[in-house]
């Protein structure tokens, strides 16, 4: 990996951690709106952002979660699997809005992993947790779509990272 890509991914991870820190009160638990999840849309512009996103999830869960081990395992798995699935599904799609829509749906469906975590760790009802976490994921990523598109017009995410 080139140094530039490493630095950019470090910045992405730092942004994810900073946003999660600012909104930690609503980023964990059965009802969660993790605002930093909108950064998942960076992978739509270039899959090389996956490293920074997953790194940000790992560090955020390490620093702010009350269920550190569970959140590291399930949270990182949710992010990594969802991003890889989205990358595979959208490989031949060129429209960023369509890619972001697919990304939002994949993450929303993948919220089942977080519901399973909450069931195992806290004995919360699986279906209730799935519903509430999925709604939070869908809302944050849905709102994140126009925000990320607007930022992309100024920053050009796909050109920032090499390759």
UniProtKB/TrEMBL annotation:
Keywords: Membrane, Transmembrane, Transmembrane helix. The keyword Kinase does not apply. The keyword Ligase does not apply. The chain crosses the membrane at residues 6-28, 49-66, 102-122, 128-151. It comes from the Bacteria. InterPro entries: QueT. This is Uncharacterized membrane protein. The lineage of its organism: Bacteria, Bacillati, Bacillota, Bacilli, Lactobacillales.
């Amino acid at each position: 990996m080139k140094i530039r890509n490493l630095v950019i991914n470090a910045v992405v991870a730092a942004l994810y951690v900073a946003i999660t820190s600012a909104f930690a009160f609503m980023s964990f638990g059965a009802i969660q709106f993790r605002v930093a999840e909108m950064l998942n849309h960076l992978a739509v512009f270039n899959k090389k952002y996956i490293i920074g996103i997953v790194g940000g999830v790992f560090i955020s869960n390490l620093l702010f979660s009350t269920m550190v081990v569970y959140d590291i395992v399930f949270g990182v798995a949710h992010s990594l699997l969802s991003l890889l699935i989205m990358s595979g599904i959208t490989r031949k799609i060129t429209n960023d809005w369509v890619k972001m829509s697919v990304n939002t749906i994949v993450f929303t469906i993948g919220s089942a992993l977080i519901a399973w975590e909450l069931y195992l760790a806290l004995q919360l009802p699986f279906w209730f947790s799935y519903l509430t976490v999925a709604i939070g994921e869908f809302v944050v990523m849905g709102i994140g779509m126009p925000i990320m598109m607007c930022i992309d017009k100024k920053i050009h995410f796909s050109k920032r990272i090499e390759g």
